[in-house]
Recover the amino acids of this structure.
């Protein structure tokens, strides 16, 4: 019940296109859903995060859509750029164990110039 | 502001040996968490320390241990190394003291290879 399932495993998008990565969770106790971006040789870096009391959060070109009833959330990257090429991880945690993140398996995004 | 510093960045050990990895959190951050990253299992939570006390522990055998010092620096130790312990070990620090969501700032990791 602790799993977070992420898809697709890899994604290739043309520059200027929209990248969409999906995640689904099982544990209804999860109440914090961050997305992390990781470049080769670096640690993951927080990109954007959402709580289940809102259905969407936007920061620049990055948007999280959240569907509490379906227990799904997704990351949309608008106007994708070659510099966005990285591995993206969704994650989830619950109050009381906020730093104990359960991560998805990751999506390797390649944005073609 | 300096980020999370992990040392060493790379190390090679043989089966049966033990290893100690070090993490210096961002100044002022009192919570340190450790994660293991492997191609097969992905990112998995090891443990979290706050004020020198382990707050949470992931599903790893007792060979994996950690500690935190009064200056918030943390170390993790893996004893009796196995081939499957080869991984990138990531440390993350957080400024918050209360429960609730926090922003984790990760270091670049220590890449351990077990031969």
């Amino acid at each position: 019940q602790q799993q977070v399932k992420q898809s697709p495993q890899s994604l290739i998008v043309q520059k200027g296109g929209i990248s969409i990565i999906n995640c689904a969770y099982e544990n209804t106790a999860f109440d914090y859903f961050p997305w992390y971006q990781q470049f080769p040789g670096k640690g993951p870096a927080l990109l954007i995060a959402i709580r289940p009391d809102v259905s969407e959060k936007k920061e620049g070109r990055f948007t999280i859509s959240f569907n509490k009833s379906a227990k799904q959330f997704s990351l949309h990257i608008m106007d994708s750029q070659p510099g966005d090429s990285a591995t993206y991880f969704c994650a989830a945690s619950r109050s009381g164990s906020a730093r104990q993140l359960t991560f998805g398996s990751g999506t390797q995004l390649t944005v073609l110039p | 502001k300096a980020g999370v510093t992990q040392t060493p960045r790379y190390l090679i050990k043989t089966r049966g040996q033990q290893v100690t990895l070090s993490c210096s959190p961002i100044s002022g951050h009192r919570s340190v968490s450790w994660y293991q990253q492997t191609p097969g299992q992905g990112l998995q939570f090891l443990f979290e320390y706050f004020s020198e006390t382990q707050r949470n522990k992931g599903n790893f055998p007792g060979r994996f241990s950690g500690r935190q010092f009064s200056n918030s620096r943390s170390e993790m130790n893996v004893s009796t190394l196995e081939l499957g312990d080869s991984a990138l070990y990531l440390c993350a620090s957080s400024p918050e003291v209360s429960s609730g969501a926090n922003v984790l700032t990760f270091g670049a990791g220590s890449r351990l290879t077990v031969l």
